[in-house]
């Protein structure tokens, strides 16, 4: 482990450094806040041993600075000649994690380093697990595309970016035609497989980059196409219908074709939507029209 030792007194730095080295850790010795922050920015530090009384910026202030600048938690153990309860309490309040009085015994110092490192490792594992969970919570497990929650998160960011760039953002709402009949006749498991196949056909039509596909609900998908005009979006919709025709997913119980088809509603940020929800709402209205007009088509 890399142990940052912050102390303005060179003798103390060297003594502490030797103790750290004796238990096979790498000491990184600095004399004050400037060098400390510099090291923290440039190298991985596992534990900080922090003096309190230092001339320019004291240990309490430096601790607050570290906590403010670095989002990742690095354990801070104060090493101070001051053995007052008040000083200890102030140190913990400032963001420190433990407090030892100088002179410190080598065994105690290294035991405290070990304890802190152990907690830091647990914290890191927890952060990673949380990150993974958060990612998973945005993915639809059946089709592996974004789910509605993931879409809503992304849509906000894409919407803001579109406003900044004064771009044209198109949104396609796609709904499988006569899917209830598919389920009723082929059974739910095959219905699930059908959803997977449709999702992968749709995903294959995405252009690389910022375009997104999400499963919005049961058999409804949303495609987000930044930098895409209405007429381009309509072409994309036609291409999707053609791609599904080519995929030939058999559906003998559909009233429009002997295979799985979709209806598509299209909206675009130039049509007056005030927010992302309005954009979805417009596409939904257009989808409703596409259904009414006979399905397997796209409507603006
Ligand atoms: P329309 O052409 O008007 O869209 O008719 P539809 O039958 O596709 O629409 P409807 O809303 O009546 O039926 C949708 C069906 O989708 C009903 C539901 O059982 C099915 N469904 C929703 N989610 C899933 C799923 O995760 N798996 C399976 N297998 N079926 C699903
Ligand atoms: Mg000092
Ligand atoms: Mg539907
Ligand atoms: Mg429906
Ligand atoms: Mg449907």
From TrEMBL:
GO terms for biological process: cell adhesion involved in single-species biofilm formation; negative regulation of bacterial-type flagellum-dependent cell motility; phosphorelay signal transduction system. GO terms for cellular component: plasma membrane. Residues 167-300 form the GGDEF domain. Gene3D superfamilies: 3.30.70.270, 3.40.50.2300. Residues 112-139 form a coiled coil. Residues 2-117 form the Response regulatory domain. Its EC number is 2.7.7.65. SUPFAM superfamilies: CheY-like, Nucleotide cyclase. Keywords: Coiled coil, Phosphoprotein. This is diguanylate cyclase. The lineage of its organism: Bacteria, Pseudomonadati, Pseudomonadota, Gammaproteobacteria, Alteromonadales.
């Amino acid at each position: 482990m890399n142990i940052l030792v912050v102390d303005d007194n060179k003798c103390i730095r060297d003594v502490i450094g030797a103790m750290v080295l004796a238990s096979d850790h790498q000491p990184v010795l600095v004399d004050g806040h400037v060098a400390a922050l510099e090291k923290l920015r440039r190298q991985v530090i596992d534990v900080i041993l922090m003096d309190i009384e230092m001339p320019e910026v004291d240990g309490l202030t430096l601790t607050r600075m570290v906590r403010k600048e670095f989002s990742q938690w690095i354990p801070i153990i104060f090493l101070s000649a001051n053995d007052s309860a008040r000083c200890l309490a102030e140190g913990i309040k400032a963001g420190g994690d433990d407090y030892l009085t100088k002179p410190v015994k080598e065994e105690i110092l290294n035991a405290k380093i070990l304890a802190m490192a152990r907690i830091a490792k647990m914290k890191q594992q927890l952060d990673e697990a949380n990150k993974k969970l958060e990612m998973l919570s945005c993915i639809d497990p059946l089709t592996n595309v974004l789910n509605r929650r993931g879409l809503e998160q992304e849509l906000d960011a894409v919407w803001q970016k579109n406003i900044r760039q004064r771009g044209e953002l198109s949104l396609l709402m796609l709904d499988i035609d006569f899917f209830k009949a598919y389920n009723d006749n082929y059974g739910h498991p095959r219905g699930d497989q059908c959803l997977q196949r449709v999702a992968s056909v749709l995903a294959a039509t995405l252009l690389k980059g910022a375009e997104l596909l999400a499963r919005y609900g049961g058999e409804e998908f949303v495609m987000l196409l930044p930098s895409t005009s209405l007429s381009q979006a309509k072409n994309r919709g036609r291409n999707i219908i053609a791609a599904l025709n080519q995929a030939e997913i058999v559906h003998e119980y559909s009233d429009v074709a002997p295979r799985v088809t979709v209806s598509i509603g299209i909206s675009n940020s130039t049509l007056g939507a005030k927010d992302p929800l309005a954009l979805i709402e417009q596409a939904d209205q257009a989808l409703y029209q596409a259904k009414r007009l006979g399905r397997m088509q796209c409507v603006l």
